[in-house]
């Protein structure tokens, strides 16, 4: 819920090893459409020497997650997080998703804006909260 305001539920379905899992989540739709669900194989690797982290995901099926509604297809989703200085990182996100039920026009007009908003929420979640000081 920290980064995805429309998240209805999520869970790790199966831990495959220390760097991989099957993950299921459901997102509330913005329009009159039913919620979309995702079942992903998520993997990650890090390089302790450079501080680089790669997180990748793609859709999969799992016997413990029967389909209930619209199942979106994540063709590829990758995050590359690189340290670029003291307490600074660069986040690169590459994503190709078929949300099901969306037109090519929607992807051209809306998808980029929504992804940018998602990335800004991720960035903002790392900013320290400012507290008022009484003088």
Give your account of this protein's structure.
The chain has 135 residues and is an alpha+beta fold. Helix content is 16%, strand content 48%. The protein contains one helix and seven strands, in the order E-E-E-E-E-E-E-H. It has one helix spanning 104-124, and strands at residues 7-17, 20-27, 36-47, 52-59, 70-71, 73-85, 88-98. Strands 1, 2, 3, 4, 5, 6 and 7 form a seven-stranded mixed β-sheet that branches. It starts with 6 loop residues before the first strand and ends in an 11-residue tail after the last helix.
H and E string: EEEEEEEH
Mean pLDDT: 87
- Amino-to-carboxy terminus distance: 35 Å
Question: How would the global form be characterised?
Answer: globular
Q: Structural class of the helix and strand makeup?
A: alpha+beta
Low-confidence stretches: none
| Rg over C-alpha atoms, rounded to the nearest angstrom | 17 Å
Helicity, as a percent range: 10-25%
Total beta strands: 7
Largest sheet geometry: 7 strands, mixed
Strand content: over 45%
| Number of helical segments with 4 or more residues | 1
């Amino acid at each position: 819920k920290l980064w995805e305001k429309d998240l209805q539920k999520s869970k790790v379905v199966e831990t495959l090893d220390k760097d991989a899992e099957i993950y299921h989540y459901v997102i509330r739709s913005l329009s009159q459409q039913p919620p979309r669900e995702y079942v992903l194989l998520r993997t990650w690797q890090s390089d302790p020497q450079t501080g680089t982290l790669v997180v990748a995901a793609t859709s999969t099926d799992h016997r413990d997650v029967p389909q209930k509604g619209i199942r979106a297809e994540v063709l590829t989703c990758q995050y590359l997080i690189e340290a670029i200085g003291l307490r600074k990182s660069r986040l690169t996100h590459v994503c190709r998703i078929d949300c099901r039920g969306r037109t090519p026009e929607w992807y051209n007009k809306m998808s980029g804006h929504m992804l940018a908003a998602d990335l800004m929420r991720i960035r903002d979640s790392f900013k320290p909260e400012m507290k008022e000081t009484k003088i």
